[in-house]
Automatic annotation (TrEMBL):
Pfam families attached to this UniProt entry: M20_dimer (PF07687), Peptidase_M20 (PF01546)
Assigned keywords, A-Z: Hydrolase, Manganese, Metal-binding
Protein name, entry field: Amidohydrolase
Obligatory cofactor(s): Mn(2+)
Binding site for Mn(2+): C99, H101, E134, H160, H355
UniProt remark on cofactor binding: The Mn(2+) ion enhances activity.
Single Gene Ontology MF annotation: hydrolase activity
Species the sequence originates in: Microvirga alba
Residues in Peptidase M20 dimerisation domain copies: 182-278
Cited PANTHER family: CLAN MH, FAMILY M20, PEPTIDASE T-LIKE METALLOPEPTIDASE, PEPTIDASE M20 FAMILY MEMBER
Amino acid sequence: MFLTDQNLAELVEWRRKLHRMPELSGEEKETAREVRAFLSSTGADRIVTELGGHGVAAIYQGKEPGPTVMFRAELDGLPIEEVSAVPHRSAVPGKAHLCGHDGHMTILAALARGLERKRPQRGRAILLFQPAEENGSGSAAVVADPKFREIAPDLAFALHNLPGIPLGHVSLAEGPVNCASSGMRIILTGKTAHASMPEFGISPMSAVASLMPALTALGASGPMNEGFAMVTVTHVALGEAAFGIAPGRAEIWATLRTLTDSGMKNLCERAERLVVSAAKGTGLEIEIVYDDIFHHCENAPEAVGHLRRALEAEGVPYDRGNLPMRASEDFGRFGENAPAAMFFLGAGEKHPSLHNPDYDFPDDLIGIGARVFMRTLRDLLG
């Protein structure tokens, strides 16, 4: 193990400090400052800041030519009130690290401690702390940032903790592992009227009533194969909160989910045709807006091979688990220009689920995740 007991104790305290100070997607200014301060004590050759927003990347240069290998963690928390009784619970009302990004950052911080002691022999190691993972906008902003050219990887790796599987057990597979998803916001605008004379208005009520089941029927889960599709209506608003007004406006929010990006294009087109059909002849105006767009994550065989060898060398048990999973992850874009892979690290079979108000990252995973990443790094860069 490349970390001492003192290192691990320091890292646990740092993780808990991050847990107390969560920031939402795009607002991670103080988290980024804390990360930068930690990295500055590890002898990085360069620290890139304000990357795609509040992103931070540390560069550790080897003595000899070689590949650029990137490891990614996420900076952001969630807009959920934490109900945990742990002493390090969130100090920010309505916000909390309930997905484990504080733990993921700490695993990369552990790598930084290892690189402080022993630099890569060749190539470059990049530790990327990505902003805005939770809403799917962060990786796109990072990749579009001109500063990303300086750290563009030849291989990219990430992990995510996963409650529901044994503590320290890994799920890993080639091919798609996380679904593409898109938030579809449908805005239907008609004309209000007095509630006693609804015939003088243009109400979206009938269109809304028909669209909710029709959208859901486009994809009601099913096997996780190439044709997988799922539509979940997450929010509906109709008219004003008043008894005297017949509604003139409505919004439907739905999350569209497919195994691949190509499947998402097809599902969006089908959903849009339904909206047009439901509004046809009603006089309603239609606006469709997409938010929280996640590309699917695909594990490249080459990158998976490196992780498998590291897992076996470190004695960490693994199998393919329940992959691919329905949930989305904002790591897919990093695999579009370089082989990339993500593995899922068990947080315990009975551990509270991700995004639950009583979730907390298991500190025992810091050492396990760091060992796997460090073994991968040393195998590739020496």
